[in-house]
Amino acid sequence: MRLASFKPTWMIQSIYNISPDKLQQHGIDTILTDLDNTLIPWNHAGSNRDILHWVRLLQQYGINVIVISNNNPKRVRRAVADLGLPFVARAFKPMNIGIKRTLKRFSLRKDQVVMVGDQLLTDVWAANNCGIASIWVRPLVKTDLLPTRVNRRLETIVYWQLKKRYPELGWKGDID
Ligand SMILES: [Mg+2]
């Protein structure tokens, strides 16, 4: 397993900081986003005004948002219902099948999408397994689903190694 498999393209404090014009400068017109603790706190059932505002802003710029989650279809459908976003559930990240399926279903090119997620060991790894850009964001709440807690410990170690090899890595306010 190569350390570079876990390296995010960008590290941004929160998904809500990602500006549509910066994405467009990089030729990106579709955001593939994780659900739990990236778009919505894992323990919230649905969206709120901040999320709605950010999604609508992106849509005004013509940027599509598609949710790719490892969670079950019932949870994902309910969470994105009032946002009206398309989604893929049970995506099996860090495997690349969920992302590949999404690229095919929506006829997307790898160089026009970015995967956003709060976990190096699922979201960022899956993006790298697929050869697409990624944005690692801080989790929206400090707690996690049970399986994620184990990943977090490994993530800390992996990030420490990444920082040693790529000293330029660090949390930013927006895409540069
Ligand atoms: Mg997550």
Describe it for me?
The chain is globular. The protein is 38% helix and 14% strand. The model has no long low-confidence stretch (mean pLDDT 94). It has one domain (3-165): 3-Layer(aba) Sandwich (Rossmann fold), CATH 3.40.50. A 6-stranded parallel β-sheet has the order 1-6-5-2-3-4, with helices on both faces. The chain is an alpha/beta fold. Bound molecules: magnesium ion. Magnesium ion is lined by residues 34, 36-38, 117-119.
CATH architectural group: 3-Layer(aba) Sandwich
Unreliable residue runs = none
Amount of beta strand: 5-15%
**Distance between the terminal alpha carbons, to the nearest Å?**
29 Å
CATH homologous group name: HAD superfamily/HAD-like
Q: In sequence order, what are the helices and strands, one letter per element?
A: EHEHEHEHEHEH
Strand count: 6
Bound molecules: magnesium ion
Number of domains: 1
Average residue-wise pLDDT: 94
| Cα radius of gyration in angstroms | 15 Å
Shape: globular
Strand order of the largest sheet: 1-6-5-2-3-4
Structural class: alpha/beta
Q: Remind me, CATH topology?
A: Rossmann fold
CATH class: Alpha Beta
Query: Helical amount among residues, as a percent range?
Result: 25-40%
Provide a count of the helices: 6
